[in-house]
Amino acid sequence: MIEFLVMALFLAQPASSQAAAPGAPVVAQATPAAKPGAPAAKPAAPDAGTPAAPPPAPGASLAPTGLRNPVDLSADHVTGDRNQAVLTGNVVVKHQTMDIRCDKMTGYYNATRQVTRVVCAGNVRAVDGDRQARGERADYDVPSGVLVVTGSPEARQGNTYLTGTKVRLILGNERLEVENARILVDSPSSTAVPGTRRKAPAPKPPGPTP
């Protein structure tokens, strides 16, 4: 399983401008052969605006440190480019208290390499605290922490079960919003038997007159 700790593909804070773009193809360019008698060509000077990153120390991890708001993802397979990444197979997305799982996920990020949106499809399951939701599709807005689940969604909070056309969760918020909702809740236990009526007590026989 390929696992990420928000490395090059998903950052909840800007990535360094020195880092290589994820998914960018690596192209080997051949150097033209010098003509006999011609002076040797001087190596090209590096671009002053983009200094080369120092090589990592032997055995040092490439994982970023000090992330303010990390998004942790794992999946069986991932492909990506400058604008988005697609994860497939046993996808898990964890952001603070939110845990989202699905079959396929597409993540989008902005020009500063911050993940802004996550779109999930297939067997979506989400948990945040005591709230649970499931459906066929989900759209998670990372900056606001709003998750919208659609596709015959279901939701549960404690012993309250809900169905509807759209389930909305907010990261770290106890509220649960459902459109066109149908609610199934438990009721206090009762000793009365359904369909029966309690009989009135029989009148006492009159006593002797003093």
Question: Which terms summarize this structure?
Answer:
13 strands; mainly beta; 210 residues; disordered N terminus; 13-stranded antiparallel beta sheet; single chain
Q: Estimate the strand proportion.
A: 35-45%
Instruction: Average the pLDDT over all residues and give the rounded result.
Output: 76
Which spans of ≥5 residues are poorly predicted at pLDDT below 50? 1-35
- What structural category arises from helix and sheet content? mainly beta
Blueprint (SSEs and pairs):
Blueprint: E1 2-4, E2 72-75, E3 77-80, E4 84-95, E5 98-109, E6 115-128, E7 131-141, E8 146-150, E9 154-157, E10 160-163, E11 166-170, E12 176-179, E13 182-184
Antiparallel strand pairs: 1-2, 2-4, 3-4, 4-5, 5-6, 6-7, 7-8, 7-9, 8-11, 9-10, 10-13, 11-12
Mind explaining what this structure looks like?
The protein is mainly beta and 210 residues long. The chain is built from no helices and 13 strands. Strands 1, 2, 3, 4, 5, 6, 7, 8, 9, 10, 11, 12 and 13 form a 13-stranded antiparallel sheet that branches. A hairpin with a 2-residue loop joins strand 9 and strand 10.
Write a short abstract of this structure:
This protein has 210 residues and is an all-beta fold. It has strands at 2-4, 72-75, 77-80, 84-95, 98-109, 115-128, 131-141, 146-150, 154-157, 160-163, 166-170, 176-179, 182-184.
